[in-house]
Amino acid sequence: MKDGFDLKEELKKLPDCPGVYIMHAADDEIIYVGKAINLKRRVSSYFRAKVNRGPKIDKMISLIDYFEYIVTDSELEALVLENTLIKEHSPKYNTMLKDDKSYPFMKVTVGEDFPRVLFARQMKRDGAKYFGPYTSAAAVKDTIELVKKLYGIRTCNKSLPKDIGVGRPCLYYQMGQCAAPCQGYISKEEYAKKIDNLLGFLNGDYKKVIRDLETKMKEKAASYEFEEAATYRDLIESVQHVTGSQRVVKNVGIDQDIIAMARRGQETVVSVFFVRDGKLLGREHFHMTYSDVTVDERESVIALGDAENESLSADKTDISTDNGVGTEIITSFIKQYYNGTPFVPNELLVEYEVEEQELLEDWLSKLRGGRVHIITPQKGEKHKMIDLARENASVVLSRDLEKIKREQARTVGAANELANMLGLPSADRLEAFDISNTSGYQSVASMVVFEMGRARKNAYRKFKLRTVTGPDDYKSMEEVLTRRFTDERFDVMPDILMMDGGRGQVNIALKVLNNLGLDIPVCGMVKDDNHRTRGLYYNNQEIKFPKNSEVFGMITRLQDEAHRFAITYHKQLRGKEQVHSILDDIKGVGPARRKALLKHFKEIDKIRNATIENLTSVKGITPEVANAIWTFFHEAE
């Protein structure tokens, strides 16, 4: 247990009130986040004798080193906080939604004097009217183009009526797609009528629009104005294209999301059908992970709800059609998905009953601003829609399984292969370093991180060299590694340190690690005469691997990424004209002090070697700034 953490004493301190509990492993990693109506009862239950908890929970409990908790005023508040923490930390033992999508909306700024129609990715409380969500950004853009032609509604950012008469009318006015309120060509009252018609159209009054367009088309044709008649004909076709492709279902006036799933092993696809005003607008599929020890051990390939699997032996029932697993996955999906989407429908039709349905309905109703019902249909039209969603999920899962396997082979599989090749327990986190300079002028370095074979770009780091001048890659690498492994902000150590080069770079890394008392394996990524990855230098010997192997591909990507990241950083600096002086990076040194320092000392090396007393002799350099300058140049030594 964590130093100072007494499990028995901490359990006694737990309050009898709602809240969120957070389980940590020995390395401080958050492995599970849960909510409870009574923290004392819920958290204590994890540490009692096993009572049919299942292998997944037992495995998680064996990894718990300590816990913490946050008290809330209500269970609903705990639910919201739980969702936020799960999204932020992605705990290993929480069922996780992989996708993080936002759906487009059409926004009409009705609060303005001359409202606009806009494309939006988020629904905000800004007084505007939102229509959607749509499953296709292209559909939103097509509809905006259509309503501009139908009603001449503006899409510009001009502030009206303040800017009326400023500048010339835009191209959309010339094309007949804007009524040009910016020029005063239409009154506020006339424009408001257009907005009312637009809102009617977006609310589903398509028949009236088509009827009006047909009347105008016939009038133009009767007066032999065939080009204008053709324009109205094209508009009718556009309206029919935008509205006619929607599949009609029953329950007109009801907004529904229909949620079902398919699962094989640890891979799950959740399918969501969007029904708006009784019309099926589209569907989306989401991949989720579900960690289950039983699944791992049996290596089963089973889809939930798949009729072909009903004849499976009884001992596999718990992982093929177990309602408990389905309930957990669907409940987790609802919590995570609706916590991030701005629109919640009247009804959720779900394949499996959800946990704490009443609480979830209260939470969703609060998000919607109106009552939301979660229904698990057993028969009838609604059950048929569940069957359709499940069938689609199964198709997507079958299609994507091979892709998932290939991706796992080139990432997790490659990392495991590397660990086996080197005889190491793990290669989960790799850190690669590279130096970039132009004839030694303003050297910079990159640190690239791969975790489980995948680039983890939010862990990348850039370094400007402080103590090295000239093209000395060894000295540069020594400084960078020293800074990396003495900086307290780096709280995770790599499983393997990957150097861009052979024996020389490896020895520099080993020297730094030895000086700091660190035991981390170091590999050199060796290139051939054509500057292509050839093998690894490890323990004083070169290890080659087949060029068609997954580990070869991963090492090549890692080496190329480190080089690319360093070069990109160097180009950015040159583009900003910042490479002339590293003094720009010192806190408290602005243009005036930099100029005074260079005027006094003439060279960067003389500033680097100056004492604090020498530095304070320069006009404008206070003792605090002098100390910052000295520390900047000497902290990596």
| Nearest-integer average pLDDT | 80
* Proportion of residues in helical segments: 40-55%
> What is the count of DSSP helices, taking H or I runs of 4+ residues?
21
CATH topology of the largest domain: Nucleotidyltransferase, domain 5
Radius of gyration: 32 Å
- CATH class identity of the largest domain: Alpha Beta
Beta-strand residue percentage: 15-25%
Poorly predicted ranges: 245-250, 293-321
Q: Could you tell me how far the N terminus lies from the C terminus, measured between alpha carbons in angstroms?
A: 37 Å
Q: Major β-sheet, in short? A: 8 strands, mixed
Domains (count): 5
Structural class comes to alpha+beta
Number of strands: 21
Shape: globular
What CATH architecture of the largest domain would you give? 2-Layer Sandwich
Describe it:
The chain is globular. Strand 20 and strand 21 form a beta hairpin. The model is unreliable at 245-250 and 293-321 (pLDDT under 50). Helix 8 (206-222) packs antiparallel against helix 9, helix 14 packs across helix 17 and helix 15 runs parallel beside helix 16 (503-515). The longest helix is centred in the middle third of the chain and has 43 residues, at 380-422. The strands form 4 sheets. Strands 14, 15, 16, 17, 18, 19, 20 and 21 form an 8-stranded mixed sheet that branches. Strands 4, 8, 9, 10, 11, 12 and 13 form a 7-stranded mixed sheet that branches. It folds into 5 domains: 7-94, GIY-YIG endonuclease; 105-246, no CATH class; 256-402, Nucleotidyltransferase, domain 5 (2-Layer Sandwich), CATH 3.30.420; 429-575, 2-Layer Sandwich (Nucleotidyltransferase, domain 5); 582-634, DNA polymerase, domain 1. With 637 residues, the protein is of the alpha+beta class. The chain contains 21 helices and 21 strands.
